Amino acid sequence: MAPQQARDSSLSQALAERIVANQVTALLLLDQALRVRFINTAAEMLFSVSARTAVGQPVGQLLQCVAGSLEEHAQVVLEQQQPVTERQVAVELADGHTVTLDCTMVPMMEESPPMILMELRQVDRQLRLSREEQLIRQNSATRTLLRGLAHEIKNPLGGLRGAAQLLEMEVADPELKEYTNIILKEVDRLGALVDNMLGARKLPVKRAVNIHHVLERVASVIESDPDNRVKLVRDYDPSIPELQGDPDQLIQALMNIVRNAVQASSGGGEVLLQTRILRQFTLASQRHRLVVQVNVVDSGPGIPPELQHTVFFPMVTGKAEGTGLGLSIAQSLVHRHGGLIEFESEPGHTVFTVYLPLESES
Questions:
Q1: For the CA atoms of 93, 95, 100, 101, what is the dihedral angle to 10 degrees?
Q2: Which one of 7, 182, 232, 239 is least enclosed by Cβ atoms within 10 Å?
Q3: Nearest alpha-carbon partner for 291 in 221, 356, 210
Q4: CATH number at residue 342
Q5: How far is CA 144 from the centre of its chain?
Q6: Same domain, yes or no: 164 and 272
Q7: Global pTM?
Q8: What letter would DSSP give residue 361?
């Protein structure tokens, strides 16, 4: 019986190790010196680091922003032998971006020497996924509404145009013909407005595209404007591979975003164009191995709070001369590529972020 029990015990231990390693919650095991002794797969993905690199490091090298705070709590856990939970801790990762975590530290006093099990749950990821799902539903509902609205508007517009053309042929007086010309021009203007609201209706023709070539095309148009007083600053990650996309549609989407940022900074200043690569990133409830992140950052007055929930709706704008179509069209075009546009805005700092999956969608 003893050999069989030993095999069962060994099997149970191996199974337990696999279960812990594959938990969706990030887990770290720390020794008394607060060095990492174990890191599971979820934590590797969260910190973008391999277990080989992380094991043996002080936990402060992984949790840079709040290392001191967490280390203090970890010492309390060891001294009082009681678990501690910290809610919504802002943590700066090694790649520079910040995440919000709920952190629970549990003492493992039965070990010799004692150790600490640290459990990390990413709060902002759940908030982002919820916001992302709302944006996708919003975009889908808006496109459905616009298609129905376009049908209801363009049918009578066609009748009006035909009647105006017939009337123009029957009228000999030049002054009266001027009125029919006004009718025709206004009908055409309304038709063009409806077409702009719908945006590009053709499906993207995808091929290998370098995102930096797309951004440079946008930048060249902006910088060639003689009235432009805004400096475009590049911060590109040259290691980003090509993605599958329609270059014309991507140029149009990014042009709308960058042009808005330049107009917001029209008094002068800088607009930052930044690219990064994200690993194991979720978009529309689908996890992607690699995602391109494009940030467009301006220091303008920001988006008014009353407009922030509707900024991607057509005809919503904070500019007196704006049509409110640019961001709506950009969101639709990026969504056709399996991506999404998000933003954060406060006075003096607005960031529009475009996410585009690198793998091709069939």
A1: -40
A2: 239
A3: 356
A4: 3.30.565.10
A5: 23
A6: no
A7: 0.56
A8: P
